[in-house]
Amino acid sequence: MKILAANGANIPALGLGTFRLQGEECTSIVLKALAAGYRHIDTAAFYENESEIGAALRQSKISRDEIFLTTKVWPSEVADGAFQRSVEGSLQRLGLDQVDLLLIHWPPKNSNVKQWARLLCDTVRNGWTRHIGISNFTTGQIDAMVDACDYPIVVNQVENHPYIDQTKIRAKCAEHGMAIMGYCPLGRGQMLLSDSVIAGLAAEYDKSPAQIILRWHVQHEGAGAIPKTASPDRLVENLQVFDFELSAGDMAAMEALTKRHQRLCDYDFSPQWDQP
Ligand SMILES: NC(=O)c1ccc[n+]([C@@H]2O[C@H](COP(=O)([O-])OP(=O)(O)OC[C@H]3O[C@@H](n4cnc5c(N)ncnc54)[C@H](OP(=O)(O)O)[C@@H]3O)[C@@H](O)[C@H]2O)c1
Predict the structure, then answer these.
(1) Residue 76 is assigned to a structural domain of this protein
(2) 239 lines ligand 1 (CB under 6 A)
(3) Count of Cβ atoms closer than 10 Å to residue 229 Cβ
(4) Would you tell me which of 11, 79, 207, 254 could form a disulfide with 4, CB atoms 3.0–4.6 Å apart?
């Protein structure tokens, strides 16, 4: 497994995304993921599955310090009182004293960056998280948060896959020593998986389209990805991307696909995205 060293954090480059995994299925798939070798799990208060993930962590009997656990605070909770209640609730549901990474899930609508930074940094000061990060932040918002925070920001978690151009976010994260953690890394399993360029590379390398895409992610400097699957077979498949390398020419052929710039996660509360 490639480990991303980002401002003092050591983050397994591939993690398990858990959005829409719930109940017994969630506990079971997280347990299977840990057994298959995953050591990075991504959740959020918003996903309403932290209790199930906490149960899997306990049942796995894997030492706590071997697992990198990320959770997130929803932007409406980024205010005094609500923020602390959100993090305390996450810790209680997870059954943990501390997470490894705490993210603000989306930039809040108000522009009180100093308050966002203070709330986030307080969670390091009081031991609720080892590291802090952000998600869905634009290049300007990254700069503002880096300036305002007393602790280093280690990650910006953003939509990333071969159908979206994240060159500017990637460069900004690198400038600040941060990792870029790609969500929807498989384009949610839609058109991307049947793309003809990717299908051609899958045949050439004798890998699945998902493996080609995930290899593209982790082959970028400072980049990771958190694919979600509810299938035990795909869990294993998605992790097996460290035994081959895409050539520079093939990386470039996949990079060319990003010019399509098809964003999957865009809402009325999204920030003003950087133009590619
Ligand atoms: N920070 C944010 O705002 C944000 C937003 C969205 C997502 N996220 C995080 O990112 C994670 C991943 O994103 P996502 O779940 O939206 O999308 P994704 O990981 O790109 O795609 C998941 C889809 O791909 C399918 N899939 C997985 N492995 C496959 C394989 N090897 N072959 C074929 N299909 C495969 C899955 O189906 P099966 O389950 O049937 O295998 C599922 O339908 C989330 O779970 C969440 O943790 C964060």
Answers:
(1) yes
(2) no
(3) 19
(4) 11
- The first and second tokens of residue 200, run together, are 């051609």
- CATH number (domain holding residue 162): 3.20.20.100
47, amino acid identity: Y
> Is the CB of 186 inside a 6 Å radius of any atom of ligand 1?
yes
Predicted confidence at residue 133, as pLDDT, reads: 98
* Beta strands per DSSP E along 13-73: 16-17, 40-42, 68-73
For the chain, percent of residues with pLDDT exceeding 70: 100
Measured distance CA(145)–CA(24) in Å, rounded: 38
Q: CB neighbours of 112 closer than 8 A, spacing ≥ 6?
A: none
Average pLDDT score, the chain: 97
In 122-264, at which residue ranges do the beta strands (DSSP E only) sit?
129-135, 153-159, 179-183, 223-225
Residue 268 lies in a domain: no
pLDDT higher than threshold 90 for residue 190 = no
Q: Range of 33's domain?
A: 3-260
Is there a domain that residue 269 lies in? Answer: no
pLDDT over 90 (residue 111):
no
Average pLDDT over residues 89-99: 98
Candidate list 38, 47, 151, 183, residue with the active-site label = 47
Across the range 119-141, mean pLDDT stands at 98
Q: Provide the domain count of the chain.
A: 1
Active site residue 47: yes
How close is the Cα of 154 to the center of ligand 1, in Å? 22
In the predicted structure, residue 103 carries a pLDDT above the cut 90: yes
Instruction: Please indicate, yes or no, whether the overall pTM of this predicted structure exceeds 0.90.
Output: yes
